Amino acid sequence: MKRIEAIIQEDKLGSVVNALKISEVGGVTITMSKGIGAGERPILRGSRGTAKFEAAYNRIATVVTVVEDSKIDMVVTAIMNAASTGKAGDGKIFVTNVEEAFDIATKESGKNIL
């Protein structure tokens, strides 16, 4: 099993989740956060609309799922296609090994819990 963690721009979250549903991923965990990377940060306006300043952070989403090894390429491609704008700051995808997994409710382990 592999854990796929995608850090994407917040406005691409809906597209990425829909792509994962089409890829028949069993479930996802989404964390909303802020970060600094290669992408441009948004320009904000002051309360009266006259002042402009750059936001300190980008608003990003981290989408995490665990899949069988055979689905890695399909899932990674689905995320890249849904999240890509072709600009710096689109995000990153990390794939790591899952040594063991357990379902708390059923107390089952292994691939059966996906």
Structural descriptors:
single chain; Alpha-Beta Plaits; 4-stranded antiparallel sheet; two-stranded antiparallel ribbon; 2 helices; 6 strands; 33% strand; elongated; enzyme regulator activity; ATP binding; N-reg_PII-like_a/b; Nitrogen regulatory protein P-II
Walkthrough of the structure:
Pfam families: P-II. One of its GO terms (molecular function) is ATP binding. This is Nitrogen regulatory protein P-II. Belongs to the P(II) protein family. One of its GO terms (biological process) is regulation of nitrogen utilization. The protein has 114 residues and is α+β, with helices and mostly antiparallel strands. It has a single domain, classed as Alpha-Beta Plaits. Helices cover 19% and strands 33% of the residues. It has two helices and six strands. It has a four-stranded antiparallel sheet, with helices on one face. A two-stranded antiparallel ribbon has the order 3-4. Strand 3 and strand 4 form a beta hairpin. Helix 1 packs antiparallel against helix 2. It is elongated, with a radius of gyration of 17 Å.
Number of strands: 6
Q: Count up the helices.
A: 2
Briefly note the CATH topology name. Alpha-Beta Plaits
* Cα end-to-end separation: 9 Å
Rg is 17 Å
Structural class of the helices, strands and pairings?
Answer: alpha+beta
Q: What is the strand arrangement across the widest sheet?
A: 2-5-1-6
CATH class: Alpha Beta
How much of the polypeptide forms β-strand, as a percent range? 25-35%
- In total, the number of domains comes to 1
Biggest beta sheet attributes: 4 strands, antiparallel
| Overall pLDDT confidence | 88
The H-and-E topology, N to C, reads as EHEEEEHE
Organism: Candidatus Nitrosotenuis uzonensis
Pfam families: P-II (PF00543)
GO cellular component, one term: cytosol
GO molecular function, one term: enzyme regulator activity
